[in-house]
Amino acid sequence: MKLLIFGADGQLGSAITRQSRGRGIFSAAVDLPEADITVSADVRRCIEAAQPTLVVNAAAYTAVDRAESDAKAAFAVNRDGPRNLAEACAAENIPLVQISTDYVFDGSAGRPYTEDEPVSPLGVYGRSKAEGEAAVREILAEHLIVRTSWLFGAEGNNFVRTMLRLGETHRLVEVVADQSGCPTSAEDLARALIDIAGRLAEGAAAPWGTYHFCNRGTTTWHGFAEAIFAMARSRGRLQVNTVAPITTEAFGAPAPRPAFSVLGCDRLRRRFGIVARPWQEALAEILDRIYAAAEGE
């Protein structure tokens, strides 16, 4: 089995590359400027050169707030990019794994979303990702769309690293407390994707379609922040002593966000036997990596 990973320098792409090579799976990893998924010629050239058995698209425009004023770029990466990948994969008879998001839902259900529920995104970012999903489904039968949520890791820009930075310089940190979701480790998602790739390589009838993967458990951004600081206090120096809950309205972000974007992940368990660990365990592992890296600098 050989993977071709687009978006290899990002938070998730680097985790997939690391996990695959650590498990003896050959992978080709590409990113800008070598491979721009909005340019169909780039996509075709990379696929023809790598000759993979499976393509994974971890490239995405993830700046949720900036997307509101930069819709053209968001749709180019999140909609047109997956379309280019699906077309190139269809021409070469190669399956595609497309990563998507909980933000394709509007958060009004008040219960975990299943994979087959209709999407209803609130903002540009969610709409661009939903249209990217639709393009893949329309063009390529042999695909997996894997939605995830609240992704964090030891590298890149994410909520955990932002909270640690604020906690080192601020005694008071205000965090939104009226949005609920599932924090998810990029490392755990990468492991799940490699497990899925291995199953697909076995040659059995592949259960193509849409799946959800998140670490187990639900919290708010405020609850997530409290857990980060509680675990971090035993690992590093923090100034923060108060994590104050605020409303989404008071925070005043440009992009609307779903109030309840919990994803139900039972389909992944039933079809692939994959069960995620609690997000608190995954968070502890990531914090250990962050502080180990800081000590090594």
What percentage of the residues does DSSP assign to strands (E)? 15-25%
Secondary-structure class = alpha/beta
Q: Return the CATH architecture of the domain at 2-158 and 184-216 and 261-277.
A: 3-Layer(aba) Sandwich
Mean pLDDT: 94
CATH superfamily of the domain at 2-158 and 184-216 and 261-277: NAD(P)-binding Rossmann-like Domain
Radius of gyration: 19 Å
Number of strands: 12
What CATH first level of the domain at 2-158 and 184-216 and 261-277 would be assigned?
A: Alpha Beta
Question: How many H/I helices?
Answer: 10
Strand order of the largest sheet: 2-1-3-4-5-10
Segments where pLDDT lies below 50 for 5+ residues? none
Order of helices and strands: EHEHEHEHEEHEEEHEEHEHHH
Give the % helix.
40-55%
Shape: globular
Q: What's the story with the biggest beta sheet?
A: 6 strands, parallel
CATH fold-type name of the domain at 2-158 and 184-216 and 261-277: Rossmann fold
